[in-house]
């Protein structure tokens, strides 16, 4: 059976939008920009400037609806400007871009991504998170046939976004190296999966090397080499892994713990996805007895104020911890693993991390 892989392509830099005309015009002349309200306000002038004196025309700027739900996707499909456009420019964060990817896959229309924050790899992946129309809770994953045709990563715009987005983005991306390596351990990998796992091996290493300086760049709203390296890891490297490997390798215990934490209202309301995942990375490394890697991530988390203990993520009672563990043990993320993960193993790792914090204040 044929194996077809569409790899993401991207342009990154403070002047990334200068390449829009050259890359997008083969797909038509009319583009509709769809995204979040804040994201559109931040990117609008740069987009307009980039296509001046070209054959491209932006025919409208359209709000995506506020969440990646089928209701919003269907409403956009009926929008006359979407129907008139030759292509879609998806602007914003993960939910806006996932909405556009799903919409364009369903309607067979080219989509280009323009992330305005660096919080995850959605701008280059072929997977979309869909939420329930009414409750806005997670509903399902939608898998487009391919990633966006091209991703334009404007590091100046990203450097001006709220600090917490890239801070949590680093926390989420920290997991890719360890989860992909752990989930695939012992498997005989074909070329595509092997390539994805190989790419993952450098993700955490680069984040730890450049993360502190990149976050300072965001504080000062001045993109630098470190920021470009970190954004490349968050969006591109983790996205390449996601595209290449089977879904079982894309997440593991760190994400299971995240899902467990979302059972607590305080965690869901006060803490970002990547923030909670970064805590789960420490638990995975301790459980798997990767002591040297654990120390590296622990020290890095400390240096940038990512969580290292239960108190940091507002889990303060045994009852709360039990709620988290109950959900953690039900997730599919810990099914395809090299050995059975038990509740006791996770609990012991959590207690070990609590003790380590006391010894390394």
What does the model show?
With 361 residues, the protein is α/β, with parallel strands linked by helices. The protein contains 16 helices and eight strands. The protein has two domains: 10-159, Rossmann fold (3-Layer(aba) Sandwich); 163-359, Dehydroquinate synthase-like - alpha domain (Dehydroquinate synthase-like, alpha domain, Up-down Bundle). 53% of the residues lie in helices and 11% in strands. A four-stranded parallel beta sheet has the order 3-2-4-5. The N and C termini lie far apart (55 Å). The mean pLDDT is 96.
Describe the structure using short key phrases:
single chain; 361 residues; alpha/beta; Rossmann fold; Dehydroquinate synthase-like, alpha domain; four-stranded parallel beta sheet; two-stranded parallel sheet; 16 helices; 53% helix; 11% strand; globular
Give the arrangement of secondary structure elements.
Elements: E1 10-13, H1 20-24, E2 30-35, H2 37-50, E3 57-63, H3 70-77, H4 80-84, E4 87-92, H5 94-107, E5 111-115, E6 128-131, E7 138-142, E8 151-154, H6 155-159, H7 163-184, H8 191-200, H9 203-219, H10 225-244, H11 253-261, H12 265-270, H13 273-287, H14 291-304, H15 318-328, H16 343-359
Parallel strand pairs: 1-8, 2-3, 2-4, 4-5
Antiparallel strand pairs: 6-7
């Amino acid at each position: 059976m044929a194996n077809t892989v569409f790899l993401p392509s991207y342009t990154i830099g403070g002047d990334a939008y200068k390449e829009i005309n050259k890359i997008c015009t083969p797909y038509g002349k009319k583009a509709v920009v769809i995204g979040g309200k804040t994201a559109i306000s931040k990117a609008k002038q740069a987009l307009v400037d980039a296509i001046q004196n070209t054959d491209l025309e932006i025919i409208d700027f359209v709000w995506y609806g506020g969440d990646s739900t089928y209701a919003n996707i269907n409403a956009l499909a009926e929008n006359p400007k979407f129907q008139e456009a030759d292509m879609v420019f998806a602007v914003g964060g993960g939910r806006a871009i996932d909405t556009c990817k799903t919409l364009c896959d369903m309607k067979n229309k080219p989509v280009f991504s323009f992330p305005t924050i660096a919080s995850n790899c959605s701008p280059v992946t072929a997977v979309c998170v869909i939420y329930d129309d009414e409750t806005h809770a997670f509903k399902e994953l939608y898998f487009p046939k391919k990633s966006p045709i091209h991703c334009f990563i404007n590091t100046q715009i990203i450097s001006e976004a709220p600090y917490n987005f890239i801070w949590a983005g680093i926390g989420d991306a920290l997991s890719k190296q360890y989860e992909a390596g752990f989930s695939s351990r012992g498997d005989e990998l074909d070329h595509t999966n092997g390539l994805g796992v190989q790419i993952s091996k450098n993700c955490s290493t680069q984040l730890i090397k450049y993360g502190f300086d990149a976050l300072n760049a965001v504080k000062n709203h001045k993109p630098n080499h470190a920021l470009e390296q970190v954004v490349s890891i968050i969006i591109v490297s983790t996205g390449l892994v996601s595209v290449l490997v089977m879904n079982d390798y894309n997440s593991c215990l760190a994400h299971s713990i995240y899902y467990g934490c979302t059972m607590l209202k305080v965690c869901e309301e006060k803490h970002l996805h990547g923030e909670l995942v970064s805590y789960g990375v420490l638990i995975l490394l301790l459980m798997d007895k990767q002591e040297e890697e654990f120390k590296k991530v622990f020290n890095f988390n400390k240096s940038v104020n990512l969580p290292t203990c239960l108190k940091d993520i507002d889990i303060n009672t045994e009852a709360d911890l039990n709620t988290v563990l109950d959900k953690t043990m039900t997730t599919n993320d810990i099914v395809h693993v090299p050995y059975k993960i038990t509740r006791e193993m996770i609990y012991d790792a959590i207690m070990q991390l609590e003790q380590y914090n006391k010894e390394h204040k």
